[in-house]
Amino acid sequence: MIDLMIPPIVAALIILSLHAYLGLHILAREVIFVDLAFAQVAALGTTVGLLLGIEVGTPLSVLGALGFTLVGAGLFSFTRMDDSPVPQEAIIGIVYVVASAAVILVAGFTAEGAEHIKETLTGALIWIDWPTIAKMGSVYLAVGIFHWVVRHKMLAVSFAPQRVERLRLWDFLFYVSFGVAISFSVDVAGVLMVFSSLVIPGVAAYLFTNRFGVALLLAWTTGAIAIVGGIAASFYWDVATGPLLVCSFGAVLLLAFGLRAVLAVRPGRDVVVRALETET
Q1: 134-183, pLDDT tens digit by residue?
Q2: 188: which of 30, 133, 197, 266 lies 20 to 30 Å off by Cα?
Q3: What is the pLDDT of residue 229?
């Protein structure tokens, strides 16, 4: 049984490695559901490809998802308007609802529509193979290296946008890298897992600290516990891995809330990001 558990655990940890970092940025920007909208837009891209006869998981299918997420990156970066009476979260919610409805409509014209809709939500993580893991891992590594190189600028865009020149360009690059990662993970992990791995570890981390570096370590730790525990439980109880994994993330967050109450931890609201002291 353990040998069957290793591939999905490795794949999920690869996803977590980048998503936990991106999630801290998303929480700082207060656009919590942008990852859910992005994942649904990527799912729409694969669904349109399915309608055109492109099998899910193939390079053409991934390109379709990537193309749709690039459009989303442009939309989300250029609708960031601090002086607008319309909050960006409203735009994000609209994109999510429309993309979700479009997935249902388009999938209805395919023979495997119902099954495809289910997989867009929960993924097929349990069936992942090592070549797919290697492909996804290489993409995540490339995106991770990009964020490491421009980390000071990206941190400034999220935590001190008023200090950044050409803000929309950097915002666009952030969302493009975000979209690239999601395009390679949404078919594997599903929309719900993608959202969970982006937001829940970051929320759990910020319950205990307002220092970005420490929060990232806590996010990786809590996410890893949820992944290993959730996948192991799904094998032990022989239940669907995707939904149980999402519930595992929720359970870890509840434990974090309980531990916070016991320890009486009350970090300040302002996140300390030391990288901003050296470069913006």
Answers
A1: 999 999 999 999 999 999 899 988 888 888 888 888 888 998 898 888 88
A2: 30
A3: 94
pLDDT at 280: 41
Domain ranges of the chain: 2-277
| Six-digit token string for 42 | 């990527």
CA distance linking residue 134 with residue 138, whole number of Å = 6
- CATH fold label, 2-277: ABC transporter involved in vitamin B12 uptake, BtuC (1.10.3470)
Q: 70 with 176: CB under 8 angstroms?
A: yes
CA separation for the pair 83, 40 (Å, rounded) = 28
Note the pTM of the prediction, 2 decimals. 0.86
Q: Which burial class, exposed, middle or buried, applies to 53 when counting CB atoms under 10 A from its CB (0-12, 13-18, 19+)?
A: exposed
In this prediction, residue 84 carries a pLDDT of 63
